[in-house]
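INFO batch 0412 | record 1 of 1 | parsing
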Amino acid sequence: MCQQQYCLNMLHEAGVLGCKSASTPFEAGTHLYNDAGPIYEDITGYRKLVGKLLYLTNTRPNICFPIQQLSQFLDKPTMQHFRAAQRVLRYLKSCPGKGVFFPRSSSFQLLGFSDADWGGCPDSRQY
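INFO prediction complete | emitting C-alpha cells
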C-alpha cells in the first residue's frame, strides 16, 4: 500500500517541492510545548495540514509519532509547531513513495509495544 500521489499532491499544495529534503521527520531533541513562541496565524491551514498528514499515517507508520505530537496543538499552534510540520513535509519529500508492503504468502506477525509515560507531557501531565 502506497500513497505516493497523495503525498506528492500534498507537498505541491504546501509549496515544499523546491525545498531541501530532510533525513528525519523531527530534529533530534525536539520538544513541543503550548507556549513555544508566537501564535501561528493560519490556524485552519495548520489543522488541514495535520489532518492530511494524519491520513498519510495509514501507510507511513514512521511518521506516526511526529504527527501525534503535532496533533496535540490544533487549538493554538505556534510558529514552532508549524516549522515542525514543515520538517515532516521535507522528510516526506525525501521518500514520497514509501509505503507498507504485505506479501500474499508470509508468516509475518506484527507485534507492537507501547511505553506509556503518563507524566512526560509538561503541559498536561497526561500523555
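INFO post-check: The chain has a mean pLDDT of 87.
INFO record closed
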